[in-house]
Design goal:
The complex is a heterodimer of chains A (293) and B (215).
Chain A (H helix, E strand, L loop, with lengths): L1 H7 L5 E2 L5 H6 L11 H4 L1 H14 L3 E3 L7 H4 L8 H13 L7 E6 L14 H15 L5 E7 L2 H14 L4 E5 L2 E3 L2 E3 L6 H10 L4 E9 H14 L4 E6 L3 E3 L5 E3 L3 H14 L3 E2 L7 H13 L1
Parallel strand pairs in A: 1-12, 2-3, 3-4, 4-5, 5-8, 8-9, 9-12
Antiparallel strand pairs in A: 6-7, 10-11
Chain B lengths: L2 H13 L3 H13 L4 H21 L5 H18 L14 E6 L7 H13 L2 E4 L6 H11 L3 E5 L6 H13 L7 E5 L5 H7 L3 E2 L3 H11 L3
Parallel strand pairs in B: 1-2, 1-3, 3-4, 4-5
Helix pairs in contact in B: 1-2, 1-3, 2-4, 3-4, 4-5, 5-9, 6-7
The chains are: A alpha/beta (293), B alpha/beta (215).
Chain lengths: 293, 215
């Protein structure tokens, strides 16, 4: 399988995609709408965004299904449409995925917390993720479980995938930088997360969102000391700001972002891409760097 | 045991997230007929402030913050009926809080509501995805002092501004203090909206609410 070949090839740096949400908002989606519903309402926009990333040099892009698990869809009263949303998401990416590129099944957090913050159990998480996995399994090449801040929720997601799929898994937690190092908001340290992700036998250990690319360099530096697994990094383009028209923007320039990514590659990151605030322009800058290596 | 030692023990019980001990000490204070106001301020209040400091230092995380605040709230429920000289401290002020319309992210808002309650505010939590008009209607009906509006999405932040615009249009913006929160919210945004304050986290939100009401 292509992905495993890439992982084995020491000279290959795998280029992931950039933000989906940020690109959708640029096209004027109304506030509060879950981007995933656009797979049905505006499929051309979703395909166009995927295509822009593939065209500019991404080796793989992820489906627009970040929030398409039943627990999360329920908040938008869309849980009945889970098959349709995930199914259409596959169609939208398949028709623009070039040969020799891959489709990644994207699974984000459920948005529900365990006690004492919320009252969701591991079984509920697992069953919710499993419903989504079963649909996406028909069309994806590998999985990205991402932006999860509770290692127990991540474990539930990994188990949901493993029960229903044999495809490779990238497991990306989201960390904040504290005076004591990198932790998730639920208090899981980077060390603890990496240890558990190794036990769960994921193929790639990753981190995404919350922190900008400059802080992600330190996280990769720490991670490399803790594991021999391939590492993936999808940081944010700094923090969002609001312009005079009330529109959000990210001011961290793509060239600076790509320079930070270069540092991460030098440290040993295997898969690189961007999260919130990144764009095809960002991916273009990273592509240039990878091609010059 | 001296009162100071008891305050210290109470504070430790909160920091250690020891619910049983905290309740036991609250009942002890009631049994000894201590000044309940002082017990709340110097025992429980000191404890929850330390919890906040530990959060800032990266020692405590969401589960500890939520547990600490819940234990404090339970103990306040025990103590408040025993306040000497009436229930004037029953509330530091009234707050209506909500995540703005179009935004379903409720966790940050819930933490702030929990912390405000733990400190002694009377909080009306309207939940998530609440229209600006509804927040204002509730604020008027409950005669609150503070309106708290949360937004996690950069696209829904505009709704925070809408709350202030409606208040101005109705000519009642001087009746309420409006505070904003949420990951993308900055003090610059608060200034632009004409809100009264910004809090980066739940502990700051409590301090902000207290200072706005001169408590």
């Amino acid at each position: 399988m292509l992905f495993h070949d890439w992982l084995k090839d020491d000279s290959k740096i795998i280029l992931f995609d950039g933000a989906m949400g940020t690109e959708i908002f640029k096209r004027g989606i109304e506030p509060g709408k879950i981007p995933d519903i656009l797979n049905i309402e505006k499929p051309d926009i979703i395909s166009e965004i995927h295509k822009s990333y593939y065209d500019i040099g991404s080796d793989m892009c992820q489906t627009c299904t970040f929030g398409s698990s039943p627990l999360n869809l329920k908040k938008y009263k869309l849980e009945d449409r889970i098959k349709e949303i995930n199914g259409k998401a596959l169609e939208n990416i398949k028709k623009v995925c070039p040969p020799n590129c891959l489709i990644v099944g994207d699974i984000g957090p459920s948005g529900e917390f365990r006690s004492p913050v919320g009252n969701t159990t591991s079984e509920q998480w697992q069953s919710s993720f499993a419903s989504q996995v079963k649909i996406l399994e028909q069309g994806v090449d590998l999985w990205h479980l991402e932006t999860i801040s509770d290692i127990e929720e991540m474990q539930a997601a990994i188990r949901a995938v493993k029960k229903n799929s044999e495809k490779p898994i990238i497991a990306s937690m989201t960390y904040k930088k504290t005076p004591r190092g990198y932790f998730t908001i639920m208090g899981d340290s980077l060390e603890k997360c990496i240890q558990i992700l190794e036990q769960e036998k994921v193929d790639v250990i990753g981190a995404n969102c919350t922190i900008g690319s400059n802080d992600m360099i330190g996280l990769i530096e720490e991670s490399i000391k803790l594991t021999n697994k391939p590492l993936s990094a999808k940081p944010n383009a700094g923090q969002p700001k609001i312009d005079e028209n009330g529109r959000p923007f990210y001011e961290y320039p793509p060239k600076d972002f790509a320079r930070d990514i270069h540092d991460m590659i030098n440290l040993g990151a295997k898969i690189v891409g961007g999260c919130c605030g990144t764009s095809p322009q960002t991916i273009k800058e990273i592509r240039k760097i990878i091609d010059s290596l | 045991m001296s009162q100071e030692n008891l305050y210290g023990e109470i504070s430790d019980a909160i920091v250690n997230l020891n619910e049983e001990k905290a309740r036991e000490l609250a009942n002890k204070a009631i049994g000894k007929n201590l000044n309940i106001l002082n017990v709340i301020e110097e025992g429980f209040g000191a404890g929850i402030r330390r919890v906040g400091e530990l959060w800032d230092a990266g020692e405590f995380f969401l589960p500890e913050l939520m547990r600490g605040a819940k234990i404090m709230q339970d103990c306040l429920d025990l103590l408040i009926p025993h306040l000497q000289g009436g229930i004037e401290r029953k509330t530091l002020g009234k707050v209506v809080i909500a995540t703005i319309e179009g935004d379903i992210h409720s966790i940050g808002k819930t933490i702030v509501a929990t912390m405000l309650r733990a400190y002694g505010f009377e909080v009306y939590d309207l939940g998530a995805d609440v229209p600006a008009e509804k927040i204002i209607d509730e604020a008027i009906e409950k005669n609150v002092d503070i309106i708290g509006v949360s937004a996690l999405l950069t696209t829904t932040m505009l709704g925070q501004k809408k709350v202030i615009e409606i208040l101005k249009k109705k000519g009642i913006s001087n009746k309420f203090k409006v505070i904003l929160g949420g990951a993308p919210v900055t003090s610059k945004w608060v200034e632009e909206c004409g809100a009264d304050g910004y809090a980066g986290n739940a502990v700051e939100a409590v301090e902000l609410a207290k200072s706005l009401l001169h408590r």
